[in-house]
Amino acid sequence: MALDLSRFAKAFFEEAQEHISALETLLVAVNLRAPDAEALNAIFRAVHSVKGGAAAFGHKALSEFTHDFETILDRVRKGKLTLTKPMVNIFLRAGDVMRHHLLALEKEVEPDAAAMQALRLSLADLTAAELEPPPLLEEVEPAPPPRFRIEIHLEKAQYASDEALAELKGDIAGLGEVVDMSTHSIDERLLAFVFNLNTDIDADELRESLEFIVPAEAITIAANERRAGAARTPAGSTDAGMFADDADGGFGFFDSPAPPSPEPPRATPAYAAPAADADVQLSSLVDASSIRVNVAKVDQLINLVGELVIAEAMVSQAAIGLDPDQQTRLAAGLGQLERNTRDLQDAILAIRMLPISFVFSRLPRLTRDLAERLGKDVDLEMLGEDTELDKSVIEKIADPLTHLVRNAIDHGIETPQERIANGKPATGMLTVRAAHQGGSIAITVTDDGAGLSRDRIVAKARELGLDAGDSWSDEEIWQLIFTPGFSTAAAVTDVSGRGVGMDVVWQNVHALGGKIEIDSITGQGTSILIRLPLTLAILDGMSVSISGETYILPLANIAQSLQPEESDIKTVNGSQVVLVRDEYLPITSVAELFNLEGGQRDGDGILVVLEMDDKRAAVRVDDLLGQHQVVLKSLEANFRKVKGVTGATILGDGRVAFILDAGYLVSVAHSVAREKAGALAGGIA
Length: 685
Known about the structure:
single chain; 685 residues; Four Helix Bundle (Hemerythrin (Met), subunit A); Alpha-Beta Plaits; Helix Hairpins; five-stranded mixed β-sheet
C-alpha cells in the first residue's frame, strides 16, 4: 500500500506559499548590476523546494513547471544567463502563476493551465539569451556533478507491493540521474532502499526534497566527493573508481562498488540522528521550536479566556457581600486568580501577535510594478517591520495600506521629468513606518511628491455637492478625500479615478476602531497616519458612573482625572472649558450627548481628561468605579453601529456596559467648542 501523504497536504500548501513569498521578496530586492550569489542560490532553492513538494504530492503540472523554472534559475546562478529586468518580470509572473495554481489545488478547483503553459513558453524563450561559456584549458575537463549515495529505510508493510515501490522510484527519479538502485531486507520490519544519485543540488536541498517523499528519520545521505588532486574524468562518466570519501568525513559511507577509502566507511543506523552531525541535531531543535496551529483554535482560546475574565469579575463582585473574615481569605485566592488570569490572557494574546512584516512584505512588489506601469522611479523604505499587532488587525489593515501606497505612487509622486523640473531628485521616496505608541500602533505612509491641493479638493467637493467652507482648516479639507466617489484624477484608469480606494481605507480603519490623520504640504509631500488598537479582544478600562449607568473608558486614552475647583471652570461663548496645567480644555458631557436623565451636567462631578491624536478634552462623569480588564464584544455585529460607542462588555454582576469611543468624545468636545466660541480670544465670562 502506498504511503498516505494526504495529512501533510496542508503543511505543503502553507510552506509552498512561504517559498513563493520568499522568491518574490528576493527577486524584487536583487541588484541587477551585481547580483548577490547567495541571493541567486536562495531564489533557486525556493523554486526547487516547491518542485520537490509538488512531485511528492503528485501535482505533475506544477512539478514540471517548476522544473523548467529552476532550470533557468540554475543557469542564472551559474553565470550562463545574465539577469535582466525583463527576466525578473517573467520570474515574478511565474511566481504569481505558481501561487494561483497552488490556491486552486488547495481549494480543489481546476487550475489555469493556459496561464501556466504561457509562462512555460516565456521561460523557454529565455534560453535564447544564454551566453557562450568561457573557454577552458585543453587539459581541464568539466567536473562531474556531485554524486550521493542514499539509503532509505522503509516499513515493509507500506511498500509490500511493486506498485508502491515503483511510485517511490518515480518520485526519486525527479531529483536527478539515479544509478545502481537496489533493495534488500534489513529485518522482519524494515526494507533498505539504496541508490546512487547524480544531481546538481547540494546535500541540504537533496534532504529537503526527500523529506517530502519519506520520513526524515529514515534518510541517510553519503557524499561521494572526489579527492583533491584526483584525475579528471569527463562529466557523465559512471566509472565508480573516480569517487572516494570526502576529505572532511562529513557524511560517511555505505558499502558500495567503489574502491575502499583509507578509513572504512561507517553506515548511520536508520531512525537515529548521527551524534557527530551537528546540522542534523540543529535542524531537529529548530523543527521542535515551533508548531503550526489552526487560527480557529487560537480564537477559541481567546474567547475562553475572555469568558474566564468575566467569570473572575463575577466572583469578585459576589465576594463583596461576605463577612469580613471570609472576605479576607477569599480575597487572597481571588488576587492569585486575577494574576494568573492576566498572565494566561497575555500569553494567549501574544500567540496572535504577528509582525507587521506580513503586510509590509507585499509592498516592494506592488511599488515596483505600479511605478513601472506609470513610468515613475520610486524607492520604498520600510521601517518598524518587527512591530507586532493582533492577527485580526493585520488581516484587515492589508487592503487600506495597499490603497495608500497605490495612491501615493499614482497621485503623490511625480514623474521623473516633473520632479527634475521642480528641483527634486528624479527618484521619488516612499516611506512606510510602523511603531507602537501607548496602547495602539501607528502606521505612517509618507511620500515626497506633489502634496494635496486644497483648491482642487474644495472644487471637487463643491462639484459633488459637498459642504466645504472657506473657513475650514486644512485638516478638515484633507478628510474630504475619504468621501465615497471622491477623486481628483483627470481620467478613470485601471489604477485610479473611481473614488473607491480612499473610501475603503476609511471604512476599514474605522471598523477597527482606528483613526486617520493627514498632513500635507503642497509641492513637498503627504503623510497619512493610521492609528489602530493592538488587539480587538481585551482592553484595560476605567469603569465610570454616568446617570446611574456604568460605562467603560479605555485606559490608554485617559491622561488624568480630577475634581475641579469652581474657579477652574470658565464659559467661552456658551461652551465650558476647564483649566488643566495652564491649558484650557473643552468639556463634554456624555449625559447630554446620549440624552440621559439625571447625572452631573454642569457644575459638580468628576472630569476625566482624554487624549487622542494629540488632542485633549475633559469628559464629565458622576463617579469613578474602578480599573479592570474588559472583554470587548462587537456592538455592530450583534445590534448596530452606535456613534460614540466602540463596543460592549459584560460586567461582574452580569450587566452589559458600553465602551465609549474616546476619539469621538474628544472630537465632539473640540467641534462644539469651535462652533460656540470660535476662539478663546472671544472672551471668558
